[in-house]
Amino acid sequence: EDQEWIQIKQALVQFMDKLSPVNAVPTNGNWGWNMSSDPCRDKWEGVTCHGKNSVKKIVLETSNLAGVLDANSLCTVKSVGVVSLKNNKITGQLTEEIENCRDLTHLYISGNQFSGDLPASLSQLNNLKRVDISNNNFNGELPDFSKISGLITFLAQNNQLDGKIPDFDFFNLKEFNVSNNNFSGPIPDVKGLLQNDSFFGNPQLCGKPLQNACPPAPQTSIMPKKSRKSWFEKLLLLSGYIILGLVVVCFFLYKLVSKKKIREDGEKGRNKKIAANDAASTVPSTTISSSVKDGSGQKTSEYSLSSVENGMAPPLVVLTSPLLRGLSFEELLRAPAELLGRGKNGSLYKVMLDGGVNLVVKRIRNCGISSEKFKTRMTQIDQVKCRNVLPAVAFYCSRQEKLLVYEYQPDGNLFNLLHGSSNGQIFDWGSRLSVADIIAESLAFMHQELHEHGIAHGNLKSMNILFNMSMEPCISEYGIMEVENQDGSLLSPNNGIESPNAGHADSTFKGDVYEFGVILLELLTGKLVQQNGLDLPGWVHSVVKEEWTVEVFDKALIQEGASEERMVSLLQVALQCINSTPYDRPSMSRVSAMIKSIKEEEERSISSDP
Ligand SMILES: Nc1ncnc2c1ncn2[C@@H]1O[C@H](COP(=O)(O)OP(=O)(O)OP(=O)(O)O)[C@@H](O)[C@H]1O
């Protein structure tokens, strides 16, 4: 036996000696934990190993253990991930040496008689997922768990812990309870994710979700407490305010008058130029000015077209929609609009046309494509008709300005469905699998149709999966940006160079495969892609490596009784998609086929259920 394994055995025997000084179950001397046998081979009670000598779990629950927890010996066993000593009579402290159990994911020591402060080093164990220290006599303050973003359970009810409740990564926590302690002060922002039963029984605790509001923070002021101004001073101050007010009003009146004049001048000029109708030599620039509210309280945004040099606007190219027959660029710009968001690729406006048609206009920032290419590209994308890819209904394109027009989709996006407030909506396993299936199939179709032009989506994310009127998912913003290659060069599929770029084209499409894999991870875990410096693919990889695969799945899916087998299959598809080597990622058509077979299995199992 190698020396290291002997040391581990010794540490385990010592750990048990300290836990069970009275030989609680003496039948076979501490459940066989002794130097003459082997923890893994001879299956010591409560010990689970992986392979020949790697101890993974120590589970000794409700076993009358009345000693102390020797963290020093325990954490000599570096491989241990799960320690459960629930419901015994263990006394003493949880000591700092627990920090050496670097691989610890589950620590269950509830229902004992632990006392004293919790070690600050607990917050260094960043693989922790579930911590249950409830029903003990711990006191003192809680360590800072906010950086352990994989933590999903924290139970510390029924102790004598005090001080303020530190911040946690509440977004990821699925169970949290600190009730019946002596905590005080305001509860950190739990983002509406917890109820008051997580906190009650702490008389000095205040703020949401408890009923008792916190007292207002004491007012501090740099002014002396009582400044008794004479009436003359007050009068002076008042007249100062009045003069300032008048100046502001005059300024706004002046602005209003001059703006109106500029607009009238511009209008006259432009009408003349439109009449001239000479599109070839033109370079207009469109500016969308800031939103203002109109009389009805509705937000309107005023677009003002100012021609650079002596040019005029090229026409709006209407692609598919019969709704937009005859719509001119000017009409579009003049319609009331509301800013929906500003992303990295530009701003998005909801535009309300007469007759109740709602559109969205994406004003693209630095798309890196020439006007000519943009036109060709939009036309090529438009020719591929795919039911679940939202078509642009029109576009506008000048040298400085690129606008894309879509129909407004009122039923939200996948991001909000997964991460927004649920509003009672249930997003069950069957629906998630359907969304995955539809998106994969549509993307595979688009890739196939646009392969020769090298146009991938380029910015696939849950926010770009919209739901249409019949709640079917639709991919939006297909191909609006030029995708950068791994080597930093832009992919120009029509630049005449054939074969050397074929690899690049593939890597562009493989970028979509990666982004689709991340969407699958969001569907499976219910977690955000990026949070507190933790990235979802990295986290999933680490959990899967730890062989705690089930821990990655959204709790709602587990509760619903979704098939673990099929969730694992879908997870495997996702992991293939996010392979760090683009070449090794499957094509979208392969991904789609894999998802279809998982879906078919799911359907078979439902129909064979009684
Ligand atoms: N056609 C549409 N109908 C309704 N809502 C839409 C439509 N297109 C986009 N949205 C929503 O508008 C919001 C802003 O969209 P936008 O595309 O500007 O954001 P983004 O995707 O983060 O930006 P970017 O693509 O530039 O990174 C999102 O919530 C998106 O779901």
Break the fold down into its secondary structure elements and pairings.
Blueprint: H1 3-19, E1 47-49, E2 55-59, H2 71-74, E3 82-84, E4 106-108, E5 115-116, E6 130-132, E7 137-140, E8 153-155, E9 160-163, E10 175-177, E11 182-186, E12 204-206, H3 231-276, E13 285-293, E14 299-306, E15 317-318, H4 329-334, E16 337-343, E17 346-352, E18 358-364, H5 371-383, E19 394-397, E20 402-407, H6 414-419, H7 429-450, E21 465-467, E22 473-475, H8 502-525, E23 530-531, E24 534-535, H9 536-545, H10 555-560, H11 564-577, H12 588-608
Parallel strand pairs: 2-3, 3-4, 4-6, 5-7, 6-8, 7-9, 8-10, 9-11, 11-12
Antiparallel strand pairs: 1-2, 13-14, 15-19, 16-17, 17-18, 18-20, 19-20, 21-22, 23-24
Adenosine-5'-triphosphate binds at residues 340-341, 343-346, 348, 360, 406, 408-409, 413, 459, 463-464, 466, 476-477.
Subcellular location: Membrane
Pfam family, one: LRR_1
Transmembrane segments: 235-254
Major sheet:
7 strands, mixed
User: Which homologous superfamily in CATH is the superfamily of the largest domain?
Assistant: Ribonuclease Inhibitor
Arithmetic mean pLDDT? 79
Q: Which stretches are low in confidence, meaning pLDDT under 50 for 5 or more residues running? A: 219-228, 266-311, 485-503
How far apart are the termini?
54 Å
Strand order in the largest sheet: 1-2-3-4-6-8-10
Number of structurally distinct domains: 3
- What small molecules does this complex bind? adenosine-5'-triphosphate
- The CATH C-level class name of the largest domain: Alpha Beta
Structural class: alpha/beta
Q: What form results from the Cα inertia axes?
A: flat
Shape-level CATH architecture of the largest domain:
Alpha-Beta Horseshoe
CATH topology of the largest domain: Leucine-rich repeat, LRR (right-handed beta-alpha superhelix)
Work out the radius of gyration. Answer: 32 Å
Strand content: 15-25%
**How many beta-strand runs?**
24
Count the DSSP helices. 12
Determine the fraction of residues in helical runs and give it as a percent range: 25-40%
